[in-house]
Amino acid sequence: MFIDRPADLVWSLVGDPARLHEWFPTTATEVVGNKRWVSLASGLKFEEDIVTLDHDLRRFQYTIVNNAIVKSHLGTVDVIPDGDARCVVVYSTDADPEVMALMIAGAAGDGLERLKTTMEAS
Q: Are the CB atoms for 100 and 70 separated by under 8 Å?
């Protein structure tokens, strides 16, 4: 998703794990150390481990843990500069079972659209 804002500005939101609910379709986010809990509107809560938070690369990675349905998971969000005033945000997900990746990808698409709208309105 191309966003007409500098990468550092977009990263200031994307790179803060506690602010996920500001752009991703979740209702609440709690972070303690390298743990994050994400609440959905349905009442479901996901526990995640923060794997990578690299401010130089502008890369965030997380994995869903302690979930009866998700056997393995790795989500990656990269914010890559495309000139001084534009960037591309890439969200990728690997999951087992694979159908979970499709569900997460749908939410990620909505999140990226909301991120673009939010960032370009400021």
A: yes
Q: 3-state SS of the chain?
A: CEECCCHHHHHHHHCCHHHHHHCCCCCEEEEECCEEEEECCCCCEEEEEEEEEECCCCEEEEEEECCCCCCEEEEEEEEEECCCCCEEEEEEEEEECHHHHHHHHHHHHHHHHHHHHHHHHC
- Distance from C-alpha of 95 to C-alpha of 104, rounded to nearest angstrom: 9
CA–CA dist 94, 7 (Å, integer):
24
Q: What would the two tokens of residue 80 be?
A: 């890559």
Q: Which residue has the higher pLDDT, 89 or 106?
A: 89
The confidence score (pLDDT) of residue 58 equals: 98
What is the pTM for the complete model shown? Answer: 0.94
Cα 63 to the chain's mean position, in Å? 11
Distance CA 47, CA 26 (A): 13
Q: What are the structural domains, with CATH classification, of the chain?
A: 2-121 (3.30.530.20)
Count of CB atoms situated within 10 Å of the CB of 95? 21
